[in-house]
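Re: [ENG-882] Designed sequences occasionally contain unexpected residues at chain ends

Forwarding the minimal case from QA. Structure tokens:
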């Protein structure tokens, strides 16, 4: 089971790092909003945890390390996994989501396809909520506490077993939901 989870997470990390643009509507409709009965709501925190660090600052962490990380849901076409408690959190200080690009030619506003792939690899983390067996909960994060693409989060948790230099995975204990960027915000060129 752990081996399968590690392979799934490694694949997700690779998919995110190497993915490029696809159809906006298709990606936006990939999952249904969460319901009130969603078991992921127990992870929500009313207060933002102190001393959060951006994703890139905790990238050298080892499995078992306790971390508090902050970032934005971005990184590729599929950043919220339907029917699994998995999401991609990107370091907004190191990578730029396409909604902030003046010549936005990307198919999804939360993609980061214009950034250097080597920077992307060390600026994204997979966040997961796991069950008592260590497997991702079989519900998606979309809609939980307002979570969607481009939502800013602060997450407390533990670096998961199987994490390594090219695939940082964090088992969430708590998630504080911040603001969500507008999907189609444009930055004017100077």
């Amino acid at each position: 089971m752990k081996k399968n989870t590690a392979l799934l997470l490694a694949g997700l990390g690779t998919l995110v790092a190497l993915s490029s643009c696809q159809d906006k509507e298709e990606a936006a409709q990939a999952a249904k909003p969460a319901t009130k009965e969603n078991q992921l709501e127990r992870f929500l925190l009313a207060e933002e945890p102190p001393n959060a660090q951006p994703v890139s600052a905790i990238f050298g962490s080892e499995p078992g390390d306790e971390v508090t990380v902050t970032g934005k849901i971005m990184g590729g076409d599929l950043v919220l996994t339907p029917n699994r408690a998995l999401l991609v959190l990107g370091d907004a200080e190191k990578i730029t989501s396409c909604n902030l690009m003046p010549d936005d030619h990307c198919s999804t506003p939360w993609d980061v396809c214009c950034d250097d792939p080597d920077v992307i690899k060390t600026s994204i983390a997979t966040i997961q909520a796991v069950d008592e067996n260590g497997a991702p909960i079989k519900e998606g994060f979309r809609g939980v506490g307002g979570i969607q693409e481009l939502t800013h989060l602060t997450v407390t948790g533990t670096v998961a077993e199987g994490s390594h230099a090219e695939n940082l995975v964090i088992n969430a204990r708590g998630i504080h939901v911040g603001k969500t960027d507008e999907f189609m915000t444009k930055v004017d060129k100077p």
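QA comment: On inspection the terminal residues look reasonable. Residues 1-12, 14-36, 185-190 have pLDDT under 50 and may be disordered. Proposing we downgrade this to a documentation issue.
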